[in-house]
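User: Teach me something about this protein's shape.
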Amino acid sequence: MIQIYNAPDKTALGNAAAALGGDAIRAAIAAQGRANIVLATGMSQFEMLAALVRRGDIDWSRVVAFHLDEYVGLPDSHPASFRRYLNERFVSLVPALGAFHPIRGDAPDLAAEVARLGALIARHPIDVTFAGIGENGHLAFNDPPADFDAAEPFRVVSLDERCRRQQLGEGWFPSFDDVPRQAISMTVPQIMKSAFVVLAVPDSRKAEAVRGTLEGPVTPMVPASILRRHPACHLFLDPQSGALLTKAAGD
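Assistant: First, the predicted structure itself:
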């Protein structure tokens, strides 16, 4: 079941998501001396990440961070690179961070990169995953129809047109043809292994996907709907992203 939290605006949404997720990180450190987390990117995560890095009560030296996805072929110097995004908005702002394991989308051998990431995350069971929901309902870069039974933790995926148009619409690329057609993405089963999931999903652009996630069937055609089967998933909405909902709860 997905626990829903309604915030009055995007800033309050980000603050609340960071508060809950930060508390979960602290709880993991208290219980086991460390915490392994996954971070998301995109416009929906701006406020959440800004609030998270302001937390002065987290021992970041005990935290290992991964991220959900990265475009194939983009160097980390590209304005749309998710490695660059996270270095600017998170890693450089918490210099005591224990470790950050970026996805190298421009690796010369993608199979080797996917294997490297899989081996790393196998040694770091994830305590907290911060994520969003795409306009097409995608989870990470698992576009519909998503593979709910993928065996590997990461894989190379193809991006559908609606996903690519979202990236263009958010201003990350100068033209549609510049948006990469592939990415390395964390798979749905790997995301579902996270002990705790925090979804920050603002804006009217996401309202249709939010309704499909919460009120339609659990289906690969709405990849984020699988999170209704997660035991500890928390979804933060603003009035715009929740505008199409007709039910008070997510399941």
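Now, about its shape. The first helix runs from residue 10 to 32. Helices lie at 10-32, 46-53, 82-89, 110-122, 161-169, 188-192, 207-215. If you'd like, I can walk through any region in more detail.
User: That's plenty for now, thanks!
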